[in-house]
Amino acid sequence: GRKSLCQKIVDELKHYYSGFHLLWIDTKVAARMVWRLLHGQVLTRRERRRLLRTCADLFRLVPFLVFVIVPFMEFLLPVFLKLFPEMLPSTFETESKKEEKQKKKLNAKLELAKFLQETIAEMAKRNKADTG
């Protein structure tokens, strides 16, 4: 059924807590990676991507903190998220948003695959016509 106002508030607070906690963990890991880079070690592709994502999240945190700190500003957060969908740090995304992004990426890949298959089929027809 429907959640009470108190339960919605508690759920939002848990969401913010877990988001900040995950961001803190990512920041600690990124700091270790930067330390390794400064000492001449090479990062793997996966580590480099994680470091870039964490740095981007830290830069996105600044405008997000304005919404959290200023009283009643959090009511405008959904409006700004509609205008700027990539404004939230990645640790604050809900599962439904992550699934939605994955679906969009998958659909784009499927469209690209269809296009490439049609192109290859067209090239095969041309080659058969040229040789025949």
From TrEMBL:
One of its GO terms (molecular function) is ribosome binding. The keyword Protease does not apply. It is found in: Mitochondrion inner membrane. The keyword Mitochondrion applies. It holds the Pfam family LETM1_RBD. GO terms for biological process: intracellular monoatomic cation homeostasis. Keywords: Membrane, Mitochondrion, Mitochondrion inner membrane, Transmembrane, Transmembrane helix. One of its GO terms (cellular component) is mitochondrial inner membrane. It comes from the Eukaryota. The chain crosses the membrane at residues 58-81. It is a single-pass membrane protein. Residues 43-128 form the Letm1 RBD domain. This is LETM1 protein. The gene is Letm1_0.
